[in-house]
Specification:
Four copies of one chain form a homotetramer. By secondary structure, chain A is of the alpha/beta class. Chain A has ten helices and 15 strands. Chain A folds into two domains: 62 residues, 2-Layer Sandwich (Alpha-Beta Plaits); 255 residues, Aldolase class I (TIM Barrel), CATH 3.20.20.70. In chain A, the strands form three sheets. Chain A has an eight-stranded parallel barrel with strand order 7-8-9-10-11-12-13-14, surrounded by seven helices. Chain A has a four-stranded antiparallel beta sheet with strand order 2-3-1-4, covered by helices on one side. In chain A, helix 7 links the parallel strand 12 and strand 13. The longest helix of chain A has 17 residues. The first copy, chain A, is elongated, with a radius of gyration of 23 Å. Chains in contact: A-B, A-C, A-D, B-C, B-D, C-D.
């Protein structure tokens, strides 16, 4: 890292900081500029308690040089990771689509949704059984009953099942029914939960927190990878900004940035990323053209009566036409939409 | 809520939405303007699945009218709530100060910190034993050993102990040693954890998530209150914005807004709210003048060598002078700093 | 608009607000709910001083219903506007590309750039002569000399010339040489300048301010349209958010939103929208797939030595391959890249 | 600045970047770390075209070390600047208050406001004559007639007059009547206007743009200072964030940050900074306690009927009580409210 000293830092302060840097096991390299002295600290800054150096006497700021994550980094593993679960694949040139309702509401609803999204071209079924709801007065999900219905829908269609797990106690139960464990945006920094799914054998779909930096996002992934689970997909689902005409702001530049920094597949969620059903088709096409390795889309038989998220759910015909257009766009950028065998 | 129809919505669509509103148990009141028709839906919109109405045919937007929270609202309980734990008090004209290191590091560190912050005028000791860290490679806290040291510091000073609990499994253990359970910003929407502390008999310090709206913040409090625990303090600790010269942006207007909307006490965290030790004294004074019911401040014997957050921790002398100045400002705005009896 | 009264507002306060609403020439429609009374004010709220109603006694909040812009709205003009300048076209199914260096630096630089971007498929040449620079110590542009070089490049290639105008005094001069007047993001709310270009006969490329809401953006366009100039293109160039791995955050959902609200063409600027050259190709493809009516891309013979914005400029070969890919994506979504005749 | 190379950068790429750095007149200092090579470029990076180095081969990122501004910096002028205009003073321990209506509406309105704010303790009168309005359909100000009324109010009260100037053509006219020229947030990066007021002999109140970084803010001040006008006050008026319960987010940590970086006085605008009259008293107190050198507050005889900004204007009694409380808080932090002689 680079320790930048104040303009008027004394020689004694500079020497103090050199000692501190060396005390942390790093090599200090001093550069005396016209206006300022800086100390380059060489070594693995990740494993130190270097952040507190900023409190040192005469220090103006401390600039990190190394990315704080390791196992997730493309520097460590240059080839792209492809996740493969039942018929679903994402990464390394293949675009996988997960689709289905926000919440599992009934057998008929989830099974008809599964058939519809499969017919349109999805290879995984999403559906919430344990629902993290902003209000304690909102529908909280069908819980285990919902998981059973998801498993039933998988039986009927062969689609992989993606569903959210909200707490450590539920990991075992959810993993019993699901193929992919989803960590929601609100739980991106629930470290105990990350450790728990890191110990599971299921693939993980990790959603970016609404105000997480990408470094924080990749460090959350690192918590999972660190426990030995390397089947992690990163999902951009929109960030909190001042914009109010969308529920969240969907920054698609996350795709090329993540592709440069990590080998993990990047999934885009245009439903939460916009919060309005009418924007989802265009943003799905944009994501595929922009290099996404997958999409996760909310689809409901009758969005208007959905128990949750109806405002951002596609109906079956719109999803079907969106998928047809996505396939064309994928071909135009030399990539393929994953299809059920 | 108000359902605003598109300009060119047909009579049939308007009728369809009237039916939908009535189907939700609300009374529909139609107003036909020069340019648009709007439907006012009268009744308790909180308990309905009204959000999905936005997907209805011909609907432009849906505007909620009622605040989504209830028990936390000042409308329900007009008088301010005061939290009182051992010698610590906050709310209803009394300003309570919690202070101490980010992490418990050793007996000497925590006990000397307790004595120092007590001498300066704090009535509660903060200190992390279970630490949520952005990186899996950072110091994760002393865990139960840290809790024991906090209890020891309480024994020696009489200060109330505030410490973070990160997961449901740890609630019982932490509650055994702590007087106030802190829910960190990253866990503000960890609903299982909110429910668990809601069942505890300990007071709760709930930190606002870095990108949580105030409605989301109050609904998180509602999860706790709803379980029967009414000893909740709300802590503003800064939000994520484009500003990079502070680690977070500390919006003190949260204070008058929360005082208008809720009866719960409002605590300000100028340490996390700025991320720089040199800003903490001025922002502490500003918070007290602006009406805060309490402060939580990071204080460390030697910030430069702290295991975490050194860059934003005050040393003992600076904390002492800050407290002396806060007492004067509190008096200037006709409030009092809570003191140990 | 909807005037929401406080829960405990008195009958006298409600009556006072009804009077105020009527005094503004609006019709008051009172709805008494279980918890609150609301007053729907029917009429053209745009021309009133209604915003100050919020200060009325017992008022909780005031919610506008109508969009504040008129001439720019699709409600007023349902068919999409196509802008056509020399060989450049944008809108109504045609995607036009403007490209060239951030600043005009020399005859050779701009003429070679013009030939290169034309060959690759652009139909307009961008280049700054008057440069708004964050620092007074940075290169400020070649001014009139730069304009002459742009005109020369047009003569040689037939490309339409797009260049920024920074102040009212310069409008006449810039309009003498340029085909499209660009209003930069920093000047989006420079109302005198908007009025001045509104009186010009040149087409206008209006860039969104980095923290402008879309309503503010469309109202800025309205200032121009209101003066009689209807050749306005809206350019999304990224917003300020907490994200630091891109210079700005490019919210492509602006495209479907603007297409729904306005008839004006929507241009995307992936160069400023990301701030990194390596992200520009993917975001160009995403923009075209997402429905953009045009792109504006920074291209430089040797980005590394550019007088400004080198970090986000494409070199000639990368621009050429990007254009080839954009053409394929445009075809996949049933749109066409505009080509020189 | 520090040029950080990619992990796998070749020796040839490193050498190329060393050459580029030297070509810019900087001295290159190479540090080969365990994982990366970095090149420290020593010299005055402000006057170079260094930003484009990021496009160099093998470059990961470029980190600036020096602040980009000079004349505004406290390093250059360690003692605080005090601005003094008629009876108004701000800076160096004195807190000056400017108050008055958003817009000048009539002689009676502005003169009565002047008397009221003077009586309460303000030493400058604010009032808009040229109004930058988001909508072309809103009241645009009384223009020169308004300026004359401001001058009349000054004649009657002795208060210094602060009013906004929106374009270069108006600078001369406004300077004829006003004592302090205000540059509004929307024009913070209108560089021609900054240059024009830089040539004026009037003091300048420069408002921070709603999404300007502090570096951009200080560089805008630098444009003014650079023309020879050193009477510049910096005004924090709130930034755009995701928060919707306030119109803007008022980040008071701007005060200690600016005090550390610049010698110029820091004024806080709690009216625009919150957008709600009921929050203004608390945020005024907070600003004074937090170290502000001045306040600018909107005050109107009858906020409810104001031609603009009524929702955030104080009435006379509330302003008077706020000033009385501010004086007490100022005393508590060893500073004094400036008073009319």
């Amino acid at each position: 890292m680079i320790v930048v000293m104040e303009k008027n830092a004394s020689e004694e302060q500079v020497q103090h900081m050199i000692d501190r840097v060396q005390h942390l096991g790093l090599k200090a390299h001093v550069i005396r500029g016209v206006e300022r002295t800086v100390i380059a600290a060489v070594g693995d800054e990740r494993i130190t308690k270097a952040e507190s150096l900023e409190s040192g006497p005469g220090v103006a700021e401390v600039l990190p040089i190394l990315a704080p994550y390791k196992v997730a980094s493309r520097e460590l593993k240059p080839e792209s990771t492809q996740i493969s679960v039942l018929g679903f694949k994402a990464g390394a040139g293949v675009v996988g689509v997960m689709a289905g309702p926000c919440s599992v509401e009934s057998e008929e609803q989830i099974v008809s949704s599964a058939h519809a999204v499969k017919k349109a071209g999805a290879t995984a079924l999403r559906g919430g059984a344990f629902k993290p709801r902003t209000s304690p007065y909102s529908f909280q999900g069908m819980k285990e009953e919902g998981l059973k219905l998801l498993a039933l829908a998988r039986e009927e269609t062969g689609l992989a099942v993606v569903t959210e797990v909200m707490s450590t106690e539920e990991v075992e139960l959810v993993a019993k029914y699901a193929d992919v464990l989803q960590i929601g945006a609100r739980n991106m920094q629930n470290y105990r939960l990350l450790e728990a799914v890191g110990k599971s054998e299921r693939a993980v779909l990790l959603k970016r927190g609404a105000s997480a930096t990408i470094d924080e996002f990749l460090l959350a992934a690192e918590y999972i990878l660190n426990e030995g689970n390397s089947n992690v997909m990163l999902c951009e689902r929109g960030i909190r900004t001042f914009e109010a005409h969308t529920r969240f702001t969907l920054p698609l530049a996350t795709i090329p940035y993540l592709h440069r920094k990590t080998h993990l597949p990047v999934i885009i969620d245009p439903s939460h990323g916009t919060g309005h059903a009418y924007m989802v088709p265009d943003m799905s096409l944009a994501a595929v053209a922009g290099g996404a390795d997958g999409l996760i889309i909310e689809v409901h038989p009758t969005p208007e009566t959905a128990a949750s998220d109806g405002y951002q759910s596609l109906d079956f015909p719109t999803f079907e036409s969106t998928m047809a257009r996505c396939a064309k766009v994928a071909a135009a950028v030399d990539r393929t939409l994953c299809r059920m065998p």
